[in-house]
Inverse folding.
């Protein structure tokens, strides 16, 4: 079995309107929600085997804050430039590269790709809010084998519920 925990980055700051989108940091609420969601994940399903995040500043900050709450080593967070504003097929390509021994992956990225991804696996969600999480299990032995046919929705947790 493979478990994919899909998390949208925390709320980003718009204080500097001239800053490139890729370089936007988290705002205070985004930082708080990212840490809180990490604590929720630790209590709910334990430490993931892998945290894989878009290389954008706000997703890496989200990953770092969640990792602290998860007692996950910061130096083991993997960043992937291909996940920045990626569409479903690009996200699936990144997921397919995850080592087969990895059972649980926390994937941190952006909308609309993440909402589209969870809908691809059978959920009907209009929008995955910032710092919110969807948990999916797959009856698969490798990440290359995950598909809508072997996906099982487990739960969703919205940041505003914490």
């Amino acid at each position: 079995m493979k478990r994919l925990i899909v998390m949208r980055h925390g709320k980003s700051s718009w204080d500097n309107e001239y800053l490139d989108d890729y370089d936007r940091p988290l705002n205070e609420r985004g930082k708080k929600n990212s840490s809180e969601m990490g604590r929720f994940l630790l209590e709910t399903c334990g430490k993931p085997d892998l945290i894989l995040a878009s290389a954008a500043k706000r997703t890496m900050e989200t990953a770092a804050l969640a990792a602290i709450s998860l007692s996950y080593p910061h130096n083991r967070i993997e960043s992937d430039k291909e996940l920045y504003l990626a569409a479903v097929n690009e996200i699936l390509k990144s997921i397919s590269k995850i080592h087969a021994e990895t059972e649980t992956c926390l994937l941190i990225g952006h909308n609309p790709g993440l909402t589209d991804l969870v809908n691809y696996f059978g959920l009907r969600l209009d929008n995955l809010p910032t710092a919110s999480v969807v948990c999916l299990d797959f009856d698969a032995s490798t990440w290359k084998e995950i598909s809508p046919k072997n996906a099982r929705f487990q739960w969703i947790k919205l940041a505003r519920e914490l």
